[in-house]
């Protein structure tokens, strides 16, 4: 998708002043190229386009926007870096997980401190910090990116299927072991008996090509308080307590499969597949790193292209049938502190129009612009700014409020923000490989964990 547009400005008063001083001299005749990941929903893309139009009208800077499928963004960007013809601004949902830390380390990213620091007070805790990365060329940390939105782990449950199995939401245990036993030993046989269908209690992502599998496994690690790196990115995997926690986490994760409580195909699932299984009602619950599952049904309920019956089904599913919930308590009874994946955009060090690109970012991050963009995703993304987090949007229904409760309860960053080499481990998906060693190759859990630790040390040590 290609369209043309324009931009500049800022979120905080200091940044507004900076824009006012520099815009007139920069604006005339300028064109910036912006590469952006295609949105999940039309309303998300529409909000971006509207912001670009406003930016163009205010500044006289023309914006050439190109949007690409998320899976294409990294290959296209790598090719652009290799050829030396990079866009002026780039955003992808995958940059932070797969590449940003590496590019910062190698000196390929522009330092955005001059626009991020004036906005600092506008950001919620544990958001701007995700862009504070180490540059091995300058030998220091700085803000090599701009936070735009974030996501975390949620559980999605078919409440009507739970009732058909003879249970209520209040029956779901909060203790760790009891929780997983409930879905496997109680709900699954009951729903199969009630329907005569081969329905599974759990949708457990385990595919090597699935980011859901490593994000979900991190939640299991966090349940056992596994800490792989310290705040400086130094590995802690030689600690016997870390190994023990990994063994417990991997055993719990793979036991669901071994007991036959997740579809056999879950070992090869890609990111959409647990969503599809849920939508098709072949599973009763799944854990997912956004509420995109519930949001799909909300979008159906408002989609004019669907029939009245389809819209009614969407409304019923979103407002009545689907439950958005949290994980149970950790095995020691504590509340799990969820990981937050803060999605970031970039300017490259060899971009041609860095000053104008920074103006575009500053304009985008103004509250009147960034809020419609985030809310256009229907709850799939959570804001990074304090003002947007306080928006009535997050109190409008039980799904969004569940997301708000989880984030405002406190989150923790992923390890790749502290040690960029974990992006390599995530790309390899060593976590899902360890799962498959256990369930497909019948390797003992402790051996699979030792192999996992060895690979972590080899890559990130």
UniProtKB/TrEMBL annotation:
Keywords: Cell membrane, Lipoprotein, Membrane, Palmitate, Periplasm, Signal. InterPro entries: Bact_solute-bd_prot1 (IPR050490), SBP (IPR006059). The keyword Cell membrane applies. Residues 1-27 form the signal peptide. It holds the Pfam family SBP_bac_8. GO terms for cellular component: periplasmic space. It is found in: Periplasm. PANTHER family: ARABINOSE-BINDING PROTEIN-RELATED (PTHR43649), POLYGALACTURONAN_RHAMNOGALACTURONAN-BINDING PROTEIN YTCQ (PTHR43649:SF33). Belongs to the bacterial solute-binding protein 1 family. This is Carbohydrate ABC transporter substrate-binding protein. It comes from Bradyrhizobium uaiense.
